[in-house]
Amino acid sequence: MKPFFHLGRYFMLMGRVFSKPQKAAVYWRQIIHEINNIGITSLPIVAIISVFMGGIITIQAAFGFTSPLVPLYAVGFTTRESILLEFSPTIVCLILAGKVGSNIASEIGSMRITEQIDALEIMGVNSAGYLIFPKIAAAVIIFPFLIAISMFLGIWGGYFMGVAAGACSSYEYIFGIQAFFEPWKLYYSFTKVLVFAYLITSVSSYFGYYTNGGALEVGKSSTNAVVYSSILILLFGLILTNLFLNQ
Amino acid sequence: MIEIKHLNKTFGDRHVVKDVSFTFYPGKTNLIIGESGCGKTTILKLMVGLHQLDSGNIIYDGRDFPILDAVGKQDIRQQIGMLFQAGALFDSQTVEENVRFPLDMFTNLSREEKDERVNFCLSKVKLEGRNHLYPAELSGGMKKRAALARAIANNPKYLFCDEPNSGLDPKTSIIIDTLIKDLTEEFNMTTIIITHDMNSVVEIGENIMFIYKGENWWTGNKTNILQRTNEELFNFVFASDFMKSIFTAANQSINLHHK
User: Fold this and answer.
1) pTM summary value
2) Does the interface ipTM go beyond 0.90?
């Protein structure tokens, strides 16, 4: 890897992506299509993972709090904090980097090797803008909703599984998830989500757009998209956490 | 009309296109022929701006394409229709959506007018009633025809075809060739076809450039290409010993007849 070469090429590509849309109506239609493609189709996996992870966090928290000095409502409190601050914004976005990122890179990569991108260019279409901008816009629009759903399902998954497993009582859990709630933490979480949505779609699109060769290279682009998106999610997660929470 | 003058292109230390000049005329099927790897597709990609040329001029009706600004280039590109070797249809769109795409992007036609134009183009390539099929559901020949319909949807002045009948059987190849020739004459387009298919050459070659090792080796048309005036061209046209023997036998027969 040549980091400065890729960084320069990435920013040049983004320059083309964010240039004035040639036909707003066509772009808008593409955004709607991508909202479905990127967001709605990811809902089942996000829902399943969130419910189960909520349950696991709750049971693990109850298992860890053995001291009589720790009140049992701390189980609900811990589950809420874990889900709102880290699980839903970061871990779910890492999972989406795998699902959405590989999908975007392989889709655009396949279009590159089958000359569909050349066809767009020859028609006079800004291929980068037409293909990538709607994906970024769709992710930035739909990811916060997906993560909000993940948060909701995670916390309620914790409730149902925690109570069913006898890890805590219903009253204590409900009390715990309401205790010491600071709304600004949601601002921090959703800021992370917006940054991650942009990173996943733009980095994956970059690797797809510059695919060169055949099916093997499409696979490599897809892998690179997931690997680099995941690393950048963790890096920017650390930076944002330091900015927001390190006082 | 498109004129190319002294085109040169190198990839690393390989000089792929060497000082190629030629004129492509409107209303005619202009062919670039040559063996695989001789630089035909590179010339085509230089002409549409997919590759940057090292030196030379590509003049579209008086406008030198390489030195135009982005707006000028886009203006010319919107007058270009291109048929790719594998069709390059958009996989996620139906045949109708593919043909409609340039109309959506570059015209302000009403929905009804676009429908009318799409159906007109599909009827021209004999794909009526296939509007809602996806590219994966089409045969090779149908993909080429759908791509041709998309290429002509926006009334292009220039039509580029990169090996339009590769991978097709001889009968379907002739259908595609005839279709391109008819459309070229009907819409008075400047059509440039890259091919190494000799059937195409003798069927529709009205203005031919033979490329050999990146150079313009011979120019002519389908009637004089069969005259043995150039060793490399002869070897290209009659690649197999079988074809050479037929040609020699035919020549002997003609000579005997004249005597």
Assistant:
1) 0.86
2) no
